[in-house]
Amino acid sequence: MEEEVVRSKLLSVLAVYAGLILLLLSCSSPLGPVSASQVTSGQDEMANEVLHLVEELSDVNVSAYELSSVVVVNETHPVSHITTGVSIDLRRLDASGELGILARFIDGRFEGYNLYFYHDGDLVLLKDRPRPGDPKEVAMQVLDRCLAMGLFNASFYEVVSLLLSQVSPDKNQTVLDEEHDMALEVEVRTKWSECVFRWYWAKGELKAKGKGLAIYIDMDMMVVKIFSFAWPFYKIGSTDINVSEEEAVQMALEEAEEVINETGAQIESIDTELVMGRRVDYFTLYPIWLIWIWFDGFYEYGCEKNVIGYHVAIWADTGEIKTKDTVALIGGGDGQGGQGGTGQEDQPITEPNAPPEAPPNQGAPKAQEPLDMFLAIALPPTAMAMTVLVILKKGHSRRGS
C-alpha cells in the first residue's frame, strides 16, 4: 500500500513536469483549429506523415478530430545527426475527448510515435476495420502493414514475423534467432492491461534494445499505443569483449580506492552489467561494462553528503575508462572533469531513444522499491531518472562484496 501511494505521488510530480513542458511548447507554436486531414506548410509534412501512420498502424480515425497544435523540435547529436520530435494535439470534432501524439524522426526519417489518451472515449477508431482478437494478432497485423507501406523490407519482415510466430501473447518470454542476431521479448503487464512485443539486437551476452522494434498494445481496446522502429538507425561498432567481468571489477575497485579510503566506507555489494553504449557517433554502439560499487551506508566525500557508492564505465573492447563518479542520492559526483557517470549525455545506455515505458493513460511500470517523495521534488527530470536507477538498481548481475 505504501509503495502504491509513493508511486502515485511520483506520477503526480512527473505529470506536473510534463504538463509544464507541453504548455510551454503548445504556447510557442499555436495553430488555429483545422481538420486533422488538412495539415499544411513545410514543417507540417512530418505531421501529415505521422497522422497517416497513426491511422494505418493504430486504426485511429484521424478525420474525427480537429488539429489543435503542432510543435516540431529539433536536436542535434554527434556526428551530424538530427532527431526531431513532433508533438500533435487533436480534439474530437464533437468536443468529447482529446488525443495527443508524440512522434520521433531521426535524420528526417520516421522512427516511431506514442499515443496519449486518458479515456477510452478519447480514441475514435476506424469502423471498417474489425478489432483483432488478441495482442499477437495485433502485432502481426502491424508487421503486415509495415511491409506493405515499405517501412520494412522483405528479409526483415521474414525474421521478425518468424520470431512472433514462436511466442504466446499471454505470458512473459524471450525467444532468440542466433543466425540473425535478434531476440523477441514479450512482456504482459496485466496491471496496466498492456502487452509489449520488443524485438532487439542480441549477440551472445550482448544486447542492444535501442536497436530494435517495439509495439505496445492496449489489451482492452486492442490498439497500438506505442510504435518504435529504431533498428535501421543504429549500427554496431564492435562486439569484441577484451575485458572480462573480473578485470572490469578490479579496475573499478582501483578507481574507487581513494573515495573508499577517505570516507572509510565498506563495500556492501558490487553490480555489473555489460551493455552497448555510444562512443563518438550517437547511433553507433560498442560494448561497455557498467560497474556499481555500493557502500554500506551514507558517506561524505568532498561536497557530497549522501554518497552511497561509486560507478565506473569501462569500454569492453578497448579497456578505456569512459566515466567514473561517486553515486549520491542528491547532487553531483567527484568532479572528474564534468564526466560524471550520472550525466545523461555521458551515461552509456542500451536504449538511447527507446520509447517511454508507458504513456500517461497507462501510468508507469511497476517499481521494485518506492522512491522517497523529497527526491522526486528536489531533482530535475534528468537527475530524477538517475535517482530512480540508483534506488531501483534493477537488471544488474549481483556480486558479493
Short description:
It is built from 7 helices and 16 strands.
Q: Can you give keywords for this protein?
A:
401 residues, alpha+beta, ten-stranded antiparallel β-sheet, six-stranded mixed β-sheet, 26% helix, 37% strand, globular
Q: What does it look like?
A:
The chain is of the alpha+beta class and 401 residues long. It has three domains: 1-129, no CATH class; 131-233, no CATH class; 245-400, no CATH class. The protein is 26% helix and 37% strand. It contains seven helices and 16 strands. It has helices spanning 2-28, 45-58, 135-149, 154-165, 245-263, 373-378, 381-392; strands at 30-35, 65-77, 81-92, 98-106, 109-116, 173-177, 182-189, 194-203, 206-218, 223-229, 235-236, 267-278, 284-301, 304-315, 321-328, 397-400. It has a ten-stranded antiparallel beta sheet with strand order 1-2-3-4-5-10-9-8-7-6. Strands 11, 12, 13, 14, 15 and 16 form a six-stranded mixed beta sheet that branches. Strand 4 and strand 5 form a beta hairpin. Helix 3 runs antiparallel to helix 4 (154-165). The radius of gyration is 22 Å and the shape is globular. The two termini are 33 Å apart. Residues 1-38 and 331-398 have low confidence and may be disordered.
